[in-house]
Amino acid sequence: MSGCEQPGLLPMEAALARLLALAEAAPIAQQETVALADADGRVLAEPLLAALDLPPWDNSAMDGYALRLADWQGEALPVSQRIQAGMAPLPLQAGSCARIFTGAPLPAGADCVEMQENVELDEAGQVRFCQPLRLGQNVRVRGQETRVGDCVLPAGTRLGPIELGLAASLGAAELRVRRRPRVAVLSTGDELVEPGQALGPGQIYNSNRRLLSAWLQRLGCAVVDAGILPDDLALTREALGRLGDVDLILSTGGVSVGEADYLGLALREAGELALWKLAIKPGKPLTFGHYQGVPVIGLPGNPASTLVTFGLLARPYLLRRLGVQRIEPLGFAVPAGFAWRKPGMRREYLRARLENGRAVPYANQSSGVLRSAAWAEGLAEVLEGATLEEGDSLRFIPLSEILG
Ligand code: AMP
Ligand code: MG
C-alpha cells in the first residue's frame, strides 16, 4: 500500500477490476439478428468478416484518362471509351486511352490514371499527357482496404455510425448483436418527487432517474423504470422482488454511510452484499449485491456522485457484460488551470472545462450540484495524495467519452 492509500477505502482501479470480474462471470450472451438500420449502439456478437474485396475491382481515384504505361512512348493518344462510375468497361484498346471518372472501374489492360488537369486535348480530340506518369498512379487497387475473409470488426465492437457505414460498404444488411440488457432504474428516497408534481416541504425533484434512463438508452439498454422507492425495508424487498427478470438493478441513494440503508439491508437478507467505500470523490459509497440472483448496483444518490460512479464504474461493468473489451475512456494530459495544495485521501473527479488548453474546475464541486457537470466538458482527475501547482499535468476525461 502506498502512503496515500487509506485502509478501508477501495482505490478506483481495484473497484473497477472487481466489477469487471463480476461482469465477466455474468455475460449477457444471448444474440439476435438486427437490420443495419436498427444496429446503432448495439454490440457486435460475432466478428464481421469481409464477404468481398474492397474495392471489388481496380478503379480510378480521379476524373481523368486511363492508359497502359508500358505501351506509351509519349505520344498523344486517342480516346477509345468513356467510363463513368457504375459502368462495366471494355478492355483497353491498344494504343489508346480511356476517359474515366472517379470510382469507375479501370478497363482491363490499363494501369495508370492521369488527372484531367494535367492533360491537353488537341484539335483531333487526342490526349497529350504533359507530366511524367508513374505506374499505378491514381489507381485504387482491388482489395486495398479489405480482402475477402478479413476480420473487419471483432466481436465486442460497439456499433456506431462509422461501424455501420463500414458494414454497409461490405454489403452486410443485418448484423448479429448481443441482446439489449434490461436494466431497472430505481430511485430511493422519501424526499423525491417527479417533475410535473408540486414540491412539498422537504422535497426535491428526482434527477437521477432521468439522468440514468437517458444514459442507459444511449448504451443500448432497455430501461425498466422502477420509479421512486420510499425509505422502507418492506417496500424495498417488495420492489426488488418485482424486478426478477432484469439483468441489472441500478439503484441510487440510500447508500450513504450513516443513513438507514434499506437497499443494503434487503441485499444482506438475500445473502449477498458488498458495501465498498471508494477512494473517489464524489461518490464514496457503492453497493454491489444480488437479489434473488439479479445483480444490484447501488450508486450514491447525489447526482454528481451518480454521474461519476455510473460513468466510471457501472458503465464499464455493463459494457463488459456485453463482451466489450475497450471500456477505458480516452483521457489525455492537460495542464491544470488551478492549484491543489491539500492532498486528499480520495481521488477527485473535478467537473471541469478546458480554457486555453487548461483544466478549470467549476467553482462549486459539491456532489449535489449537477449543474457543475452540465457546465463541464470533462472530469479532471486529481490523484489521491497529489498536490498540484498551476500548469502541472493531470488527466482529463472528456464527458463525451463516457456519455455514450
Ligand atoms: P442518500 O444517498 O439517499 O443519502 O442521498 C444523498 C443525497 O442525494 C441526498 O441529498 C438526496 O436527497 C440526494 N438524492 C438521492 N437520490 C436522488 C435523486 N434520485 N435525485 C436527486 N437527488 C437525490
Ligand atoms: Mg436517501
Looking at the overall shape, the CATH architecture of the largest domain is 3-Layer(aba) Sandwich
Q: First CA to last CA: what distance?
A: 34 Å
Give the tally of structural domains: 4
Count of alpha and pi helical runs: 8
Q: Structural class of the secondary structure composition?
A: alpha/beta
Strand order of the largest sheet: 16-13-17-21-20-18
Total beta strands: 26
What attributes does this structure have?
alpha/beta; 8 helices; Molybdopterin biosynthesis moeA protein, domain 3; 404 residues; 4 domains; elongated; Molybdenum Cofactor Biosythetic Enzyme, Chain A; Molybdopterin biosynthesis moea protein, domain 2; binds adenosine monophosphate; 6-stranded mixed sheet; binds magnesium ion
Offer a concise description of the structure.
This protein has eight helices and 26 strands. By secondary structure, it is of the alpha/beta class. Helix 1 (12-25) crosses helix 6 and helix 4 (233-242) packs across helix 5 (262-269).
Secondary-structure blueprint:
Elements: H1 12-25, E1 31-35, E2 48-49, E3 59-60, E4 64-67, E5 79-83, E6 97-100, E7 112-115, E8 119-121, E9 127-129, E10 139-140, E11 151-153, H2 161-169, E12 174-178, E13 182-188, E14 192-193, E15 204-205, H3 208-218, E16 222-229, H4 233-242, E17 248-252, H5 262-269, E18 273-277, E19 280-281, E20 285-291, E21 294-299, H6 303-321, E22 332-335, E23 347-355, E24 358-361, H7 371-375, E25 378-382, E26 393-398, H8 399-403
Parallel strand pairs: 5-6, 13-16, 13-17, 14-15, 17-21, 19-23
Antiparallel strand pairs: 1-12, 2-11, 3-10, 4-6, 4-7, 8-9, 18-20, 20-21, 22-26, 23-24, 23-25, 25-26
Helix pairs in contact: 1-6, 3-6, 4-5
The structure holds adenosine monophosphate (AMP) and magnesium ion.
